[in-house]
Amino acid sequence: MGKTFDTLDAALASFLAEQKLFFVATAPLAREGHVNLSPKGLDSFRVLGPRRVGYLDLTGSGVETIAHARENGRITLMFCAFNGAPRIVRLYGRATIVEPHEDGFAELAARFPPLGGVRSIVVVDVTRIADSCGFGVPRFEFVAERHTLLDWAEKQGPNGVAEYQRNKNRTSLDGLPGVHDATSE
């Protein structure tokens, strides 16, 4: 059933790119801290190398992934085949957060489509690649992407998004540091 892989070869990279939805899991070091699990979509994921991936982190109501990655780096990405042959692929690794005002952001951002409201790129150095059967995952039909978040970001404009991030994305639920304010650095 399940296998592990040394690298993200062309077949695995193709499978990951075909999925319209993936999930990101992180946790703080504190035992009483909140484990976070977030769905992601909107063509925001890219394979960056044989053991490196990244995704655009769009502005949202919480900032747990960024905070947990900054605290301890642990991250798992999960991709499920909702159509075609059943399969689940998990990527375990160490996350690094690259915000728009930081070195290397522009080079990474060029690998992704231009989406509004990007607050960072999460880069994952993959330490384990594993798949499993996915026999219990239901089949779903993809209808369309939701553009509500992108429409919101466009309506807010860059200054409005930055203000939202300053007000809502500075700390996690557990009080860990979240988005850095480029204007205060």
Write out key terms for the chains shown.
Pnp Oxidase, Chain A, 185 residues, 23% helix, alpha+beta
> What would CATH call the class?
Mainly Beta
Mean pLDDT: 95
Q: Give the CATH superfamily.
A: Electron Transport, Fmn-binding Protein, Chain A
Number of individual domains: 1
Q: pLDDT below 50 for ≥5 consecutive residues: which ranges?
A: none
Task: Return the CATH architecture.
Answer: Roll
Structure description:
The chain has a single domain, classed as Roll (Pnp Oxidase, Chain A), CATH 2.30.110.10. The chain is built from four helices and eight strands; from the N terminus they run E-H-E-E-E-E-H-E-E-H-E-H. The longest helix has 21 residues, at 148-168. The protein is 23% helix and 31% strand. It has 185 residues and is α+β, with helices and mostly antiparallel strands. 25% of the residues are buried. It starts with a strand and ends in a 17-residue tail after the last helix. The mean pLDDT is 95. It has helices at residues 10-18, 64-71, 105-109, 148-168, and strands spanning 3-5, 22-26, 36-40, 45-49, 52-58, 74-80, 88-98, 118-132. Strands 1, 2, 3, 4, 5, 6, 7 and 8 form an eight-stranded antiparallel sheet that branches. The chain is globular, with a radius of gyration of 17 Å.
